[in-house]
Amino acid sequence: MENKNKNRSPFKNPLLIFLVISVIATIILNMIMLSVQTTNKQEIPYSEFLSMLEENKVDEVILQREQITIYEKYSGEDEASPEITSLMRFMGVDPQAVIERTKKNSRNVYYTGYIADDRLLKLLDEKGVQYSTPIQHQNPILDFFLTWILPLGVIYLLFFLLTRSMSKKMGGGGIMGIGQSNAKMYNIENATGITFADVAGQEEAKESLDEIVDYLHNPSKYIAIGAKQPKGALLVGPPGTGKTLLAKAVAGEAKVPFFSLSGSEFVEMFVGVGASRVRDLFKQAAAKAPCIVFIDEIDAIGKSRDNQLNSNDEREQTLNQLLSEMDGFDSSKGLVILAATNRPEVLDKALLRPGRFDRRIIVEKPDLKGREDILKVHIKNVKTEPDINLHEMALATSGAAGADLANMVNEAALRAVRCNRKTVTQEDLMEAVEVIIAGKEKKDRILSEQEKRIVSFHEVGHALATAVQKHTQPVHKITIVPRTMGSLGYTMQMPEEEEKYLMSKDEILDQITVFLAGRAAEELVFNTKTTGAANDIERATELVRNMITQYGMSDKFGMAALESIQNKYLDGRSVSNCSEETKTDIDKEIVRVLKECYDKAMNILKENRDALDEIAEFLISKETISGEQFMDIFNKVKEKRNTAEETTE
Ligand code: ADP
Ligand code: MG
Ligand code: ZN
Asked: Which residue has the least CA distance to atom 9 on ligand 1?
């Protein structure tokens, strides 16, 4: 650690800073006191004082060692107005006393230098002026102490307490501890106890990390051939996919200590603190090598240094320190740095260059098989019935990350406890999926009869559009039991066997039609529009917009990328890349496509009005029906219709 004192200018020492601040504050304080003391006092020559005495203008005199303070006789108003006097009486104050006091306080005050003049006392007696001298109990040492040492000490103490309570929150140790950090800033686990077996469905990521594990086991093999191990690997992926878990598993597999800290913990309000923490962390880690240093949420410090509206000195210093430490350490000792982020695009290029985090390991959301594997890992911790079907659960949870799945298994176990059962059933698991997707059932919310009918027809509208069109996933369940997350009912679709990775234009259009069929049913049957369709409309519009602006599926705009996605691992907001005019055209095109799909949905429902009525009535009586029940009625109605048509022919 040769560069230990690199960033230490004298002003980096907090002790010194506070000392300087307290001294300055004390000086200012004294200056203010002085100016307060001398305000409203006017200096006059000694001779003028004497003539004032002669003219009987002086009321009172205070003789001091160095100066004489003169109070002139009050010469203003003598009486308060009757209103004020009565007001004072009303408030229980003696008006005379108040007037006396006011008079005394509003006398003009003068001062002049003290001259050893024996005429003075005689003259004062003669004119009947009240005079006195304050008792001199001031001693210069006490004086100095009161005006200089005491305020200095108080201010210093205040700072001390303030910073200590702050650094306590940060886990530091008082004013001396700032800038030196201590072990609490990061966690050290000598054995994480987590292995690759605990991380399911991330085979590619594990493969990439395997090499690091092997290297930590046996560095000499690599050194012998002259191969350098990468110093750092960056785990990139959406939240909850197991990045932190993977990092721990690497340490567990390699059986080395695991240093972990979160990027946001680095950046504090004192410039230089983060940098010294980085220094300290690497020093400790080097002492324990081979080991793994894991920096979670590295985007908190690793944000690109340029094009920032508000540049952050502290963060930049921390980042610079991190960069120089990464260059400084010798990877042959077996120190491996892992970092995780879900915003790789904001990271500083310097962090990603060869020799630093040059290896990027993508941790994606799991696919169908991955989800099943993750469920298997977590289901081990709960007692289940023998006949549970995790494949079905995996099918229903497309788009869920590992953390969601872990949460669902736990939710299922909680439900089993609520139902007073000793084991988790398949029903618990599927209900847990719905709780995570749509919220808890809200049995106490009573819908009016009419509302229930509308919701029922709305949902069956969705389901029919699904059943009639070719490119859709089958209906799994329809329900009109309200849920806590706002839905009054919903239609759950589920892929039959395989998960799809591609979506064609036809499939998207069919899906949009399904979304809009709910509203179409409302209009067809009740001739009304309800707020229940808001979410459908939002999702349909988003799909159409993406079709046009990102997927190049519009005849009008062709394959121009009109929008691009930022933060693809987070919420994925899209930013527009086109002119205002094009935006207007896009909006028009969206409206047109939506209208087309809506008309299609309306036609489907009109053609299947008999099925719509029958299934909706059935749903109202049952509240929840399965996909099979739905298809049964649908097929029966269709048959009936066909035979009826045949007979009329
Ligand atoms: P991230 O750091 O990517 O946001 P975490 O690693 O903190 O996600 O994951 C949170 C939890 O989710 C883990 O503790 C684990 O229980 C569960 N989990 C996530 N991914 C997986 C996975 N691939 N296999 C098993 N469990 C997982
Ligand atoms: Mg994490
Ligand atoms: Zn709907």
From this structure: 242
CA distance 371 to 201: 7
What's the pTM value of the predicted model, to 2 decimals? 0.68
258-262 and 187-189: which strand pairing?
Answer: antiparallel
Q: What are the φ/ψ torsions at residue 319 (nearest 5 degrees)?
A: -60, -45
Quick one: tokens of 545?
């917009």
CB 510 within 8 A of CB 468: no
Backbone φ and ψ for 258, nearest 5 degrees, come out as -125, 110
Distance 247 CA to ligand 2 centre (A): 9
* Coil, helix or strand at residue 137: coil
- In testing the pocket of ligand 1, which one of 199, 203, 241 has its CB within 8 Å of the most ligand atoms? 241
- 515 contacts: CB under 8 Å, gap ≥ 6: 462, 536, 537, 539, 540, 543
H or E element at residue 292: strand 291-296
CA-proximal residue: ligand 1, atom 25 (nearest): 199
Sign of CA dihedral 352, 355, 356, 359: positive
Could you report the per-residue pLDDT of 336-364, keeping only the tens digit for each?
889 999 888 888 888 888 888 878 899 98
Nearest bound ligand to the CA of residue 401: 1
316, 372, 459, 563: the catalytic one is: 459
**What is the spatial distance between Cα 533 and Cα 516, in angstroms, rounded to a whole number?**
8
pLDDT in tens, 51-95: 888 888 888 888 887 788 888 887 766 666 777 777 777 777 777
Cα–Cα distance for residue pair 503/541, rounded to 1 Å: 17
Q: How many CA atoms lie within 13 A of 8 on its CB side?
A: 12
* 459 labelled catalytic: yes
* Distances from the Cα of 424 to the Cα of 200, 420, 432, angstroms: 21, 10, 11
Nearest CA to ligand 1 atom 11: 403
How many CB atoms are located within 10 Å of the residue 534 CB?
Answer: 11
Query: Mutual orientation of helices 627-648 and 609-622 as an angle, nearest 10°?
Result: 150
Best residue for ligand 1 mutational test, from 192, 203, 245 (most atoms within 8 Å of Cβ): 245
Residue 274 C-alpha to ligand 3 middle, in angstroms?
A: 50
